[in-house]
Give the backbone structure.
Amino acid sequence: MLTVENLTFNYHRKKSPLFSDFSLSLPKGGVYGLLGENGAGKSSLIYMMTGLLTPKKGHVMFDGIDVRRRLPETLSKIYLVPEEYELPPISLRKYVKLNAPFYPRFSEEDMNNYLHIFEMDDDINLDELSMGQKKKVLMSFALATHTPLLLLDEPTNGLDIPGKSQFRKFIAQGMTDDQTILISTHQVKDVEQMLDHIIILERNRILLNETSQRICERLSFIESNDKDMLDKAIFSQPTFNGNGMLLPNEDEETEARIDLELLFNGTLNYPLEVANVFKATTK
Amino acid sequence: MTMKNSIFNPSRFALTARKYITENGHTLLIRATTLFGLVLFACVFFGIIDANDRHSVLMQYEISKKQNNIEGYQQQLFERYQKQEKTHPNDPLSGEVGFALVAMFAFAIYIGSAMIEHTETKAGRINLYSQPSTYFEKYLIRWLIVVPGCIVACIISFILSDLIRTGVVSMIYPDLLGNYHFNYSNLVRNYYNRSEIIWIFTGFYLALQSIFMLGSVICRRNAFIKTFATTSIMVLIMFGLLYMGVQMQKMENVIDDTLYMYYNSSPMNISPNVFTYILFILTASNWYIVYLRLKENDVVQRLF
């Protein structure tokens, strides 16, 4: 559905490129997590995916059309919830009335359902809301548009603690089979257990691009004090109960629960070792 | 509504226009009200000054009449005020019209510099660029408000102000003679056969406004101040260079010669039409550059 082809991009000509000959493909359906440290290029990549930023070389194609052309048909199929956003000082109902016609698959009923998940009412004025509430409104609208591609840039930033758990429920309830959702975040704990596919990005390169199922098959996430296990671990980090360890899953039948923080830190620190686990042939 | 990719789609344009006007209605209303307030102030201020003069003439005339000592000029002045309207036929650009024109220019360049507003922040740019309509449609609604919309707002402001001025003056000086409405037919009569002046004026107005519109897509913050400063500096440099050229080449008479060429009917010389054409070409090219800049702008400005 969306392909990034040999992308080269830099903000300043004299500096090294943020992306050089970078390629990525997002097939139809599923929740993708785009994880990376601050400055890894997640937001820049998202802007290029929506045609809001022009690459120096290469293309981003959505259903065979270059997104940089910013054609209305393409724009009506992609919805971006940016990290920084503005809502006009009007009522929510008016906002919906003004913006919904641009998105042919928009459902007002779904919008009200999503607002309900966030414990919000539709009879509100947008200029009276806090930033977190505005984000909830914008995300509810975004999901109700039912665009084939929904991009959420740091969606949990600015949400309160109940808001973060509501967000997980919101994604689970709003997700449809023909929709692709890309969540870009560095707050990995907030999106744990809701991703179908994980992409870990480091400046100019993809360190990991695997489905959650395959990650569970190949890696195990264990919290223990066992010294033998610690020796075998690809990566470990101290926790309250000992050590959190990232290990190759020797028993592929046993599916592990992904500890996203451990996976993220392990991949950033030992990218080759993690990559080798996925390169190894299945027993 | 299915989204087609044609450069202009009437129903999509209607949605874009409705969205823009509704979301910016408050700002647009404040601006229009400010313009109206300025023109109204000028109309009432100049109207009262003028009415006061007339009233003095009338009082003097009445006193002289009682004393049976009316002088010829008093009679003439009285008759003129009795017969004629507010504006003298040979001087249609009275104080309030002059002020209204200055207000119109100021308003036009201010509105022009705010044409592509809400792009000072990344969030505003994302809102604008990711809206599913073509850049031509996004541009057209803004152009309609800034260019013809501004002229219409100025005309309506002046007509309403003139009506209010008439009411205010009638209340203060109920015994004043003559029709106090602005004489629009005088204005038309005076400029009917002087179309070149109207074209030059229109060309200058549109060209100046278009420079500020261009500024709105080049400078994301403080577009008005930056464009005003840049334009002023360029004009000063231009005049400075011209002055230096004149001084260095000892061509004191060059200005006279230029003016002679300008007004001379010889086909070899520059006619006012050429100047008008240049202004209109400059305006059209600026409008086009604004459109291209809007279309090609990125949400994050890259440094080259």
